[in-house]
Design a protein that fits this description.
Elements (H helix, E strand, L loop, with lengths): L6 E8 L2 H11 L3 E8 L2 E10 L8 E6 L13 E9 L3 H10 L5 E4 L5 E6 L5 E7 L25 E7 L3 H11 L3 E3 L5 E6 L3 E9 L12 E8 L2 H13 L4 E6 L3 E7 L5 E9 L14 E2 L2 H4 L2 H7 L7
Bound molecules: zinc ion (ZN).
The site of zinc ion (ZN) has 5 residues, from strand 1 and strand 13.
Amino acid sequence: MSPVTGLHHITAVAANPQLNLDFYAGVLGLRLVKKTVNQDDPFTYHLYYGDALGRPGTAMTFFPFPGVPAGQPGRGQPLETHFAVPVGSLDGWRARLASAGVDVQQASAATGAPLLRFRDPDGLPLALMGQSEAGVGRSADTWQAPGIEPGMVIRGFAGMTLSSYRPDATTRVLTELLGYTEAQADGGCRRFNSPDGGADDYLELLRDVAPGQPGYGTVHHVAFRVPDRPALLAMLERVQAWRMPCSGEVDRFYFRSVYFREPGGMLFEIATDDPGFTVDEPAQSLGEALMLIDAHEGMRETIEAQLPRLTHP
Ligand code: ZN
């Protein structure tokens, strides 16, 4: 079995939770699958979006930190998140995004595949990647949001672009540690296919990117998936053998994780597929109530008083 099986989730920093919810659930039509708080800072939200269950490979998550400065996507950061959509839906998406006031650029990926590039309300770079209807995305259980045609629904991640201060060292982490395979690409980037998803589930390491600044509108970390805890602990041993700064095992309640800083500057996480977001609320009402882990449940009143109320679009 490969060390990891592709992307698990992508976590970014946002400025305003309501604008974030309006955009990801309202405009992009993802399901808000978990409304909880940052485990390390329980007075701020942690919002998770994804397919009907927020399955690994579909989960886009945000820390909306009030008062955080604007960031600048750049070198040493994961950069642009690519969502998979059926190739025939790109015209519909272009119209939908434009009518929501989103500035959209038509582009091509390194493989020549069509791409719509845009930014979220905080300036986070995003793209919709048109994939053939047959194998598009990895979500078997998409979420049908109002106003989104069934043939347009986002099917999870297609891939993402990365930028490294030490591209050779990052390449070794991606290939030798995580099991990605380097593929043919044009001069602008190095391309890697995921161990399980192949060419439809990729990472692109861009060259010549200007230095970035952390803050809202930037990716905080990228998580790669492993099936379960034994696989996570096997990866932890390997990460430690590579002598990268590492968190050890962390219980994130919806999954177990190991975080490490790769030599090119990016924060990577390895996270288990289980138990997932139905561990504390039923599938049909995911995301509706504020869910708190036991350690924070005693502070619920104070936490709820400090968090801004959110209205579902
Ligand atoms: Zn994470």
